Amino acid sequence: QVQLVESGGGLVQTGGSLRLSCVASESIFRLNDMAWYRQAPGKQRDLVATITSGGAANYVTSVRGRFTISRDNAKNTVYLQMNSLKPEDTAVYYCAFVILTTPPRTLGDWGQGTQVTVSS
């Protein structure tokens, strides 16, 4: 079972930046499309961004222009650079292997996530 470990969350003020990382336990990472999701308190888990195995990225409207997803296949790692953070970005962030159907279908188990809190 491939494990995903997210890190990089924290407390930041409005307008600040954070960089999240997600490391996969196996080298199959480079063959798979990946995604970041987030879940705010009391809400469902929502898609934030996707990246193909070849590096093509896509974003939901609410983060486009502020967040950047990237990957380093040599390190089995996917990143989420988050700039111009807003209080509504507060959530637990998770990465996942996905199949890019509409909507994307996640594969495997969720990791523990990483908490992002944006203060106003």
Describe the structure.
Helices cover 0% and strands 52% of the residues. With 120 residues, the chain is mainly β. The strands form two sheets. Strands 2, 4, 5, 6, 9, 10 and 11 form a seven-stranded mixed beta sheet that branches. It has a four-stranded antiparallel beta sheet with strand order 1-3-8-7, with no helix packed on it. A hairpin with a 5-residue loop joins strand 5 and strand 6 (57-59).
Entry summary:
The protein has 120 residues and is mostly beta strands. 0% of the residues lie in helices and 52% in strands. It is built from no helices and eleven strands.
Report the β-strand fraction as a percent range. Answer: over 45%
What overall form do the CA principal axes indicate? Answer: globular
Q: What is the number of helices? A: 0
Gap from first CA to last CA = 40 Å
Order of helices and strands: EEEEEEEEEEE
Main sheet?
Answer: 7 strands, mixed
Total strands: 11
* Structural category: mainly beta
The helicity comes to: under 10%
The residue ranges in which pLDDT falls below 50 over 5 or more consecutive positions are none
Rg, nearest Å: 13 Å
Mean pLDDT: 95
Keywords:
single chain, 120 residues, mainly beta, 7-stranded mixed sheet, 4-stranded antiparallel sheet, 11 strands, 0% helix
